[in-house]
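Researcher: Quick test of sequence recovery. Tokens follow.
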């Protein structure tokens, strides 16, 4: 089992950080080709849910958790030979990749401190981020993906939330959808009082992206958002080839995920731990440096089989699991800070 998961993880890493943009098979977008929509009344339409049995994150669950996480996973469909614009949420291979990679290695960071809800959604294919405004269909396909996320969030609010504090978490494409959720449901809205924090990771977010939701530069701060884009130190991102090029170019929001502030450098001894494919946490493995809207990350130490990390130039694939234990512990801090704020009102 571990071997299969490791192979899947390596394949996804290779796709995400390949040295040059590939030529994709593509076709014009048509509504007739859109896969069937998931039904969020059915628990099988959720990639993560407190009532799901045999979930890879069940072992982390804490029955005493007092908050919820709505997690939106990153782009999983990336194959150059796949000309479909939207993912089929009923495809078993796609579902397995989401569950055994995104849920297992990313959503798990929040599972010990909050109930995790993550919907399967008809995400847009990776190529849409290179041609989102073309007539082929990137934009309408992206809207279908967000419409699923929005319906799932509506269902969550109506059926599961029951007034509990909320964390919005996402990575890459998931963070893009998470930004829209914040704008439509929280920013200058009554629901903002339920927002513990938004971990919108691996995205391009400007400092004035929202009206009333601000970047958080303190580990105990609540009601705002954090973001970073991880790159290997001394490997400048390339236009139209690396996922986070615009963050470097436009100097977007970047928070140090080890100190949770704007500290320019963090020593390796400050790092709480990365979560690797062997399901072990490796502390004191990396050090970071913040410049120009980017998070420059050293080559991880003290992990097995790290040769493949020498071959890649960006660490976008690891934006979360590189700082898995840092995120897990910080989530506990922010939830406690939120609950304490209620007692002072």
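Model:
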């Amino acid at each position: 089992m571990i071997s299969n998961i490791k192979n899947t993880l390596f394949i996804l890493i290779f796709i995400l950080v390949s040295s040059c943009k590939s030529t994709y098979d593509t076709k014009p977008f048509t509504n007739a080709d859109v896969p069937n929509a998931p039904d969020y009344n059915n628990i099988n339409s959720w990639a993560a849910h407190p009532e799901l049995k045999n979930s890879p994150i069940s072992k982390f669950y804490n029955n005493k958790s007092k908050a919820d996480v709505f997690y939106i996973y990153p782009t999983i469909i990336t194959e150059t030979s796949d000309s479909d614009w939207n993912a089929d949420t009923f495809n078993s291979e796609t579902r397995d990749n989401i569950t055994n990679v995104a849920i297992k290695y990313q959503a798990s960071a929040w599972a010990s401190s909050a109930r995790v809800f993550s919907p399967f959604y008809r995400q847009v294919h990776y190529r849409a981020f290179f041609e989102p405004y073309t007539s082929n269909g990137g934009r309408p396909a992206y809207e279908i993906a967000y419409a699923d996320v929005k319906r799932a969030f509506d269902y969550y609010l109506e059926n599961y939330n029951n007034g509990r504090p909320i964390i919005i978490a996402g990575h890459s494409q998931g963070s893009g959808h998470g930004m829209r959720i914040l704008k439509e449901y929280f920013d200058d809205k009554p629901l903002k009082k339920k927002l513990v924090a938004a971990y919108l990771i691996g995205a391009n977010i400007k400092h004035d992206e929202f009206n009333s939701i601000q970047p958080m530069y303190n580990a105990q701060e609540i009601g705002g958002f954090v973001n970073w884009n991880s790159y290997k130190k001394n490997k400048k991102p390339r236009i139209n080839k690396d996922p986070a090029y615009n963050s470097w170019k436009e100097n977007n929001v970047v928070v140090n995920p080890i100190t949770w502030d704007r500290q320019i450098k963090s020593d390796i001894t400050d790092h709480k731990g990365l979560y690797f494919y062997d399901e072990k946490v490796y502390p004191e493995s990396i050090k970071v440096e913040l410049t120009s809207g980017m998070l420059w990350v050293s080559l991880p130490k003290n992990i097995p089989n790290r040769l493949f990390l020498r071959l890649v130039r960006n660490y976008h694939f690891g934006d979360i699991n590189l700082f898995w234990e840092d995120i897990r512990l910080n989530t506990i801090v922010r939830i406690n800070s939120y609950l304490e704020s209620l007692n002072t009102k």
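Residues 1-12, 14-21 have pLDDT under 50 and may be disordered.
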